[in-house]
Amino acid sequence: MSNGDDDPADASEEVDADDAAAADEPEATAPTLPDEATEESLTEYLDEIEAALEDAETEADLDDVEALLADAEDALTDADLPDPDEDDEDADDPRGELEDRIAELREGVEDARGPYAEDVVEAIETAASTLEDTEWTADGHEDAAEAVRTFIAAAADAVDVEAVEEDADAADAILDEVAETDADDAAADETDETTDAGGAAGAVPVAELVAALDAVADEIGGAGLDPDDDAETIAALLEAADALESDLEDAEEWDDLETHEQLRAQGYYDVLGHYKDYPVEWAALKEHEAQGNVDMILLALDSLQSEFMERHCLEAFERMGKRGKTEASLEELLGRAGKRDQFAIRILGKMAAEEAVETLLEYVDEDSNPQLQKATFKALGEIGATDAVGPLAAKLEMENDHVRPLAARALGLIGDTRAIDPLADALAGDASDDVRAAAGWALRQIGTREALEAAAEYADERSFIVQTEAEKAKAALDAAATPA
Questions:
Q1: pTM of this prediction?
Q2: Distance between alpha carbon 35 and the CA centroid of its chain, in Å?
Q3: Is the bond leading into 84 cis (omega within 30 degrees of zero)?
Q4: Is 174 domain-assigned?
Q5: Which domain range does residue 216 map to?
Q6: What are the tens digits of pLDDT across the range 400-435?
Q7: What's the rounded Cα separation, in Å, for the pair 408 and 441?
Q8: With contact defined as beta carbons under 8 Å apart, do 436 and 466 qualify?
Q9: How far apart, in whole angstroms, are the C-alpha atoms of residue 204 and residue 198?
Q10: Which long-range contacts does 470-476 make (Cβ < 8 Å, 24+ apart)?
């Protein structure tokens, strides 16, 4: 410690001495591959490589270490080392131990590399995917948007790229404008505020937030950041990206809410005033059915995992018929029909959903499942599926006399004249009066003169139900022949 009386000249001489000593120190030499590759020489060589790895400061230094490890690996391959005794589990395995050491050092090289600009870009892209794939609540959407703004601002501070700074300014402007709009809307009329798919009214669409992140990622990826020269900048960007990921994880999404909270937040209960039905979900469902709110019925079907509510949601669609047919409800019901759900098939018939015909035709020949066939035949008839005329006509000859009448009735509902001959054959020769009566009914539904004449031939039939259909066909012919 100096007492204040030290001579400056003495201090200068000490510095010169230190510099001279440093100059006299020998420079570190690179590891030298041993002339003879033995366990001992290779171990010593790997020790030197490990020391070189610890001293590495740049990507070039790490490249040199990797090259040394490649040399070590080649030397080990050519080395004449003893094989372990297979009968002794505890026997030494020098080759295996050296291979493990090389692998460990390679991992050390990879851990020491970077970080790179590519790592930042990957983190941003991951965040953008999270933003796009998550269903946010209104509050969660707002927090996610703020997380994006915070990240872009941090990126603009970290990297001196004008385009990133412009992205930050644009993000600020958009979010500020939305905040002002929301404040004005709330002041004007809170009850009129609506919620879009992205979250709160006026919220920045997720697509715009994702586009902003993509733009920043492109600018960072093209900024030419060097892992050595720009290490601090890249580290700052990674820290900002990690914060973005953390903020998105903390933002509220629909899955974080209880089911009744989700329904309440999405306005499911808003239709309720005074009600007497319990549970309240059922009461609300009835109101949504009356008002034709298909999306709300689908919301209940998806959210309320009880057989009671599932049945009532599907029954609501069945009662609504064509009124309940939307792209979303079709998607739901076609998915169920694809799993042989007879209730869904029945509803698709009530909706006259032509989109279901291809799926339903696959079930026409399911003779081992007559209940599925009955639902399918009726649905095809209600849809008016002309593509089903041939397959259904063929079913007039199937063995099950409980299913054959459904095939005949379906042909009548479709009303295609190609069904007249097979229906007339069934009326003439089927052993079941139920089938014959159904064929007569179907011919009356087709309603052409040929069809009515085919049915009217049996007006004197011994079977009352067949005779009834024939008499109605004869009356229709007589009415058509009588001048107005």
A1: 0.50
A2: 59
A3: no
A4: yes
A5: 117-256
A6: 989 999 999 999 999 999 999 999 999 999 999 999
A7: 8
A8: yes
A9: 8
A10: 470/440, 472/444, 473/440, 473/443, 473/444, 476/444, 476/447, 476/452
